[in-house]
Amino acid sequence: MTWQRAMRGAFAVMIVLAIWEALGQFELIAGGALPPPTDIVRQFWDDRSDYPPHLSVSLKSAGLGFVFGNIIAIACGVVSARWRIAESLLRGLGVSLFAMPLIAIVPVLLLAFSGTVPRIVLAAMAVYYPTYVATVVGMRSVDPRLVDVIRVAGGAERDVARWLRWRSALPHVVNAFKVSAPAALLGTLLVEFGGGSRWGLGTYLLGSLGQANPARLWGIGLVATFVAAAAYALFAVVAGRLTRTALSSTVETTVSSGESPSWIRRIALGLASGLVVLAVWAIVLQILGMSPIVAKSPLAVVRYLTTDPRAAVSRERLFDAYSETLPVALMGLICGLLAALLLAVLLNLRPGVGRTVLPFALISQTMPLPALTPLIVLVFGRDVLATVIVCVSVTFFPSFVTISQALSSVSPAAVDVVSVSGGGRVKSLRYVGLPGSVPALVTAARLAAPRALLGVMIAEYLATGNGLGNLLNESRGRLDYGMIWTVATTSVVVAVLITQLIGVIERIARR
Question: Using CA atoms in the order 271, 272, 278, 283, what is the torsion angle rounded to 10 degrees?
Answer without folding.
Answer: 170
